User: Fold this.
Amino acid sequence: MGSPGLLERAWQVRQANFPPMLGSDHPSRTYPLSVTGKDCALDCAHCGKHYLAKMVAPAQALDRCQASPPLSWLISGGCGPDGKVPVLEHLPLLQALKAQGHRLNFHVGLVNETEAEAIAALADAVSFDLVGDGETIREVFGLDRSVGDYVASYRALRRHTRVVPHVCIGLRGGLPSGEEAALDILAAEGHDTIVFIVFIPTPGTRYAGRKPPPMDEAVRLLAEARLRFPTTPIGLGCMRPHGAYREALDSLAVRAGVQRIVQPAPQAVRLAQELGLQIVRSEECCVL
Assistant:
């Protein structure tokens, strides 16, 4: 799968610009905190609050620190009707976590300049979902917001802290979702690294009956990003399908020249080693 010529060119670019290492991230020491518990006003088509249920609620966070201290936290949660994750409503808790020496990676949704500055005072990084298609924003999130609103939030955050853009392949129920437009935005606005994630058909959501994006399309986007941004670190994040899809995707992602994979399939690790890459393991979120 994936064009052999495209993958070979992407691999050559990777070899020319990066050391022979593959980050293998197993984020057991990064705890996910939902500042809204299991609640989300948007009930998005791809998530349907499903992923919030497995996160730590605010009332449990400090107890979790005592029982089994993490190295870092992913600060996330459900969105309000304005597309914002209300992280700033929990400043005392976040300040307490920071004071204990934990690093904080924020997933915040849309923000204005004032909010971006306040978040930056605590953030070691911000993971920002960049969407390059207005219809996808309306269909998936139910938001009457534009691509320009996402660009403005990205700009505001980058003025104050380190931001890691996340581009979801097939966000619109496995269909094209403005991924290339998102890369155009990153080319124009600047970036330090890029993380790709992949749509997962999730039970109980409006997209439960959909399929992941075609493998060839996902691999093409990874390889073309490698060619387009030859010196930019590229990662494959935690949100992607499991099973045979992941096994195939992860191996092809190695050939496409990515630098990090979260919980890579064993086949991909073996391939990386056969290609001469040293596996460097981490126990935190790939962004950190």
Notes: DSSP finds ten helices and ten strands in the chain. Residues 10 and 138 are 34 Å apart (CA to CA). The first strand starts at residue 21 and ends at 25.
